[in-house]
């Protein structure tokens, strides 16, 4: 089992969704989190430096994020922390980023009241049998 990394923060942008070359849906958003600490010198609470994280959601989780969350929403995300490197196609050199591949995303209930509903699942595109064909049994078939 992969270690799970929790993060609490706010979305910095609206989630976006794309389809991969093989048709899987992937949803991405960025979030920011910062803490608060008491500064004895000033005698006041101050915010710590923010931490920004890219979040990746696959399949149904991504669909649910798209329907539920928007920029500025407070969320709790749990997932697998990964490090990614790539060459910038625009000549910007080697790029890198940490990403949180989410296994769970939800609103921060210390800030919201949520109403839950189950998402509609996409049904396979199989033809539905005609009503006349379903449940019609001849006497010969029933006797057999």
Tell me, rounded to a whole number, the average pLDDT: 83
β-sheet strand percentage: 35-45%
Distance between the termini: 53 Å
What is the CATH class designation? Answer: Mainly Beta
Structural class call reads mainly beta
Q: Count of DSSP helices?
A: 2
Domain count: 1
Question: What is the CATH architecture descriptor?
Answer: Beta Barrel
Please describe what this structure looks like.
The protein contains 2 helices and 8 strands, in the order E-E-E-E-E-E-H-E-E-H. It has helices at 59-68, 139-143; strands spanning 5-11, 16-19, 25-33, 36-39, 44-47, 51-58, 74-87, 94-107. It is globular. The model is unreliable at 131-144 (pLDDT under 50).
How is this fold's topology laid out?
Blueprint: E1 5-11, E2 16-19, E3 25-33, E4 36-39, E5 44-47, E6 51-58, H1 59-68, E7 74-87, E8 94-107, H2 139-143
Parallel strand pairs: 6-8
Antiparallel strand pairs: 1-3, 1-7, 2-3, 3-6, 4-5, 7-8
Short description:
This protein has 2 helices and 8 strands. With 144 residues, the chain is mainly beta.
């Amino acid at each position: 089992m992969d270690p799970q990394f929790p993060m609490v923060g706010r979305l910095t942008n609206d989630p976006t969704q794309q389809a991969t070359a093989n048709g899987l849906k992937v949803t991405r958003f960025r979030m920011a989190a910062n803490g608060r600490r008491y500064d004895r010198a000033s005698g006041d609470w101050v915010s710590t430096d923010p931490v920004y994280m890219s979040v990746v959601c696959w399949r149904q989780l991504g669909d649910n994020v798209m329907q539920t969350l928007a920029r500025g929403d407070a969320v709790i995300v749990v997932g697998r922390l990964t490090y990614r490197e790539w060459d910038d196609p625009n000549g910007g050199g080697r790029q890198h980023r940490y990403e949180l591949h989410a296994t769970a995303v939800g609103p921060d209930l210390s800030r919201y009241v949520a109403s839950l509903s189950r998402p509609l699942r996409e049904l396979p595109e199989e033809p539905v049998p005609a009503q006349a064909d379903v449940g019609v049994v001849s006497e010969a078939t029933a006797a057999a």
